[in-house]
Every structure is written in C-alpha cells, then in structure tokens.
Amino acid sequence: MIEIDLVQVGVLATNCYIIYSPGNADCLVIDPGSESARVIERLDSKQLSPGCIVSTHTHADHTGAVAPLVDRYGSDYMIGAGDVEAASGQLQWLKSMLGDFQEPPAPTRALGHGDLITAGGFEVEVLSTPGHTNGSCSFLVDGHVFTGDTLFRESIGRFDLSDGDEQEEIASIKNVLFALDDVTIVLPGHGPSTTIGHEKVANRFVR
Predict the structure, then answer these.
(1) Regarding the domain delimited by 3-206, which CATH topology (the fold level of the hierarchy) does it fall under?
(2) How many CB atoms lie within 10 A of CB 127?
(3) How many other β-carbons are positioned within 10 Å of the β-carbon of residue 123?
(4) What is the DSSP annotation of 43-85?
(5) Could you say which residues of the chain have pLDDT below 70?
(6) Structure pTM?
C-alpha cells in the first residue's frame, strides 16, 4: 500500500508528487518543478528522504527543483532517454517564468519503456508516452499512473513546443495509457485527477 502526497509548485501549478509506504523513510518524488523549499519542508515534516527523483519530461516546470533536492538528499535522478539531451537546453521563456529554476543534474539513469524502478518498498513501471516531448514517460504504481503533461482530465498536453508531436501523443494515449485498466487513477502534471475509464469516454481529444 502506498501513500501519495501532492505539493503544487510554481506559477504553473505543477503537481509534484511524493510517494511512500507507511513506515518506510525512503520515497519517490515525481516532477519537482519549482519551490524546492516547500518540497523539502513537506519531506522533512514526514521524515522522508527520496532515494529517487523522476521527471515525467524535460520541461523546466517539471525539472526546476531537482538539483536542490539531489544536493540535499543525494537522490538518484531519472528521466526518459529521449529527453536527456533536451534537459540541458531548456526554453528560456519558461525558465524566466518560473523565477527559481535551477539546471537539473545529469541523470543517473535514462529510462525506457518497461523499465522498473524500486523505491520505498514499492515498484514503479515506466511507460514510454512520447508526444508532448520526445522522451515523455508515465509512471505506473499500485493502480495509479502519473502522466505528466501527456494526459489531463478531459484534455491532453500541448504538442507545439520543442519535440512535440500531435500524432505521437495521441498514439501514446490510445495505445499505452488506454490499455491500462479503466479503474486506474490518472494523476497528471497539472490539474485534477481522473481515471482511465473516464478519459476513454469523456476526453474529446482522443476519441
């Protein structure tokens, strides 16, 4: 059984998720995009230490607070293989918008489809879901899928930024995410949660 804590960070209200098992200090942090002090405060208040930090994709609002967390906790950092190069060439307007962006460190592991990550006593399956960016990934753990900016509640991520591809994004949603059980809870990079079943019938972008 896992616990999921949400910290919304930055001017774009990025959903940063902290995943842990009760009684285990090790945890996983997904998409710390900004406001590292707030994320650290939440971790310390729960006496958690992330052995691993992952980004669903390379954009600054999902990577901008990785470096301070790695420095504090000595965490491993992982991102999709297709986004490794782009992570060092962030969009300047997005970095400026965030205000507190720090360049993320080189990843300790580049992730591919089907890879497994072990953290905090639970296992995470990596799903390659390109389209929003070339290396966008979703993370499946215990009936929850963290979709970054690929799939939102009744919407999808924009595909007109660097490395975006509309047809690839639609294919990722239909062929990878919609292959999951309908009851799977979708936890996106921005906005409210949903389920795979709801999106199959209510998301007009992927009908």
Answers:
(1) Metallo-beta-lactamase; Chain A (3.60.15)
(2) 24
(3) 12
(4) HHHTT-EEEEEEESS--HHHHTTHHHHHHHH--EEEEEGGGTT
(5) 87-88, 90-91, 93-95
(6) 0.95
